[in-house]
Amino acid sequence: MADPNVEKIARYQDNWQDERNSAALYRALSAIEENPQLKEIYRRMAEAEEKHSNFWEVKIRSMGQSEPLVYKPAWRTTILIFLAKRFGPKFILPSISTMEQMGSNKYDIQTEARSVKMPQQEKSHARLLRAITRGSKGRGLEGSQVARLEGRHRATGGNALRAAVLGANDGLVSNLSLVMGVAGADLAPRLVFITGLAGLLAGACSMALGEWLSVQSARELYQRQIAVEEQEIAEVPEEEAEELALIYQSKGLPEAEAKRLADRLIHNQANALDTLSREELGIDPDELGGSAWVAAATSFILFTMGAIIPVAPFFFLGGSSAVLTSLVVSSLGLFLIGSAITLLTGRNVLFSGMRQVLFGLMAAAITYGVGRLIGVAVAG
């Protein structure tokens, strides 16, 4: 029978580690964030997580453990901090928000945590991050700060980390399936390599063109909407001020304060257009969804990085050796992609990695079998 004290200490240690990871992440975000309001929010969240970790440390000591607690950041925390420093906080905000949402209920059944209202604090953190990343109504936040949070969310244009992972995954799985299908037909390694290279270029160009069209179309739509909004501000400023006041009221501001804020903004046409674009249209006029060319180039590169993996062995090897090597390196690539997905989902690394490998190899097996049947039919 398991010792309940041992299980309790293990639970306390897991809680302590989770809180320290969160504190380290928010400290890092606060250090690199340029927006002063967001910087202060991250600092306070870090302090709250540090208080939580101190609470669990006291609990661990009360169980008689005298060994010093040594904090080592989890690999997920380390990677997220690196990505935030490299690409900015907004790059990882959707991932952090998802993690907070998944962990917001973990203390609901822990009596010790409920005694100090820790579940409510964790849910508050989850709501706050949702306000930053998903444009919630921002209850409890001051009006101007909500506007900044809303604009910050819309500037992300989606989850960049997810796009990077899935772009590489598309390239790897699609070209692995293509290469295995051609190899199943028993063609010469040189022809398999050429076919795989052609598939890489075709897929990457298709992905890049699709991304360019998507982003450029969105930009043109946003520009049209902003132009209409600018015309309305010039022609009917009173109606636009009323719309803006209603938006702020929906965010929790009192009616009188909302009207004062709206009237003050509408008298400056540039500020009014910027605010209404963000608040009413949900558009960041400074970015308009990002650059279509950057999106296309990024999509091309990410797809190529994944697609080159299964075809590369056929440049050096032939026959079953090339097929086996391609499957091995592709499996490794699929596992790494599955592991990277855990930054978004918070799931177990081994589970996500092996699931990705399984699905990728299943697709390769199907196309290999089809290619084998076609090769036999043609030869026979």
Question: How would you describe the overall organization of this protein?
Answer:
With 380 residues, this protein is mainly alpha-helical. It has three domains: 4-134, Ferritin; 160-212 and 293-379, no CATH class; 221-279, no CATH class. Helix content is 81%, strand content 0%. It is built from 16 helices and no strands. The protein has helices at 4-32, 36-62, 75-87, 93-103, 111-115, 118-134, 143-156, 160-184, 189-235, 237-250, 255-266, 269-279, 292-311, 313-316, 319-345, 349-379. Helix 8 runs parallel beside helix 16 (349-379) and helix 13 (292-311) crosses helix 15.
Summary of the model, kept short:
This protein is mainly alpha-helical. 81% of the residues lie in helices and 0% in strands. It folds into 3 domains: 4-134, Ferritin (Up-down Bundle); 160-212 and 293-379, no CATH class; 221-279, no CATH class.
Write the layout of secondary structure elements.
Blueprint: H1 4-32, H2 36-62, H3 75-87, H4 93-103, H5 111-115, H6 118-134, H7 143-156, H8 160-184, H9 189-235, H10 237-250, H11 255-266, H12 269-279, H13 292-311, H14 313-316, H15 319-345, H16 349-379
Helix pairs in contact: 1-2, 1-3, 4-6, 6-7, 8-9, 8-13, 8-15, 8-16, 9-10, 9-12, 9-13, 10-11, 13-15, 15-16
Q: Which key phrases capture this entry?
A:
mainly alpha; flat; 3 domains; Ferritin
Spell the H/E element sequence: HHHHHHHHHHHHHHHH
Number of helices: 16
Estimate the mean pLDDT confidence.
76
Helix content: over 70%
- Write down how many β-strands occur, each being a DSSP E stretch of 2 or more residues: 0
Please state the structural category: mainly alpha
Q: How many domains make up the coordinates?
A: 3
Shape: flat
Measured on Cα atoms, how large is the radius of gyration? 26 Å
Major beta-sheet overview: none
Strand content: under 5%
Q: First CA to last CA: what distance? A: 66 Å
Low-pLDDT ranges: 134-159
Oligomer: single chain
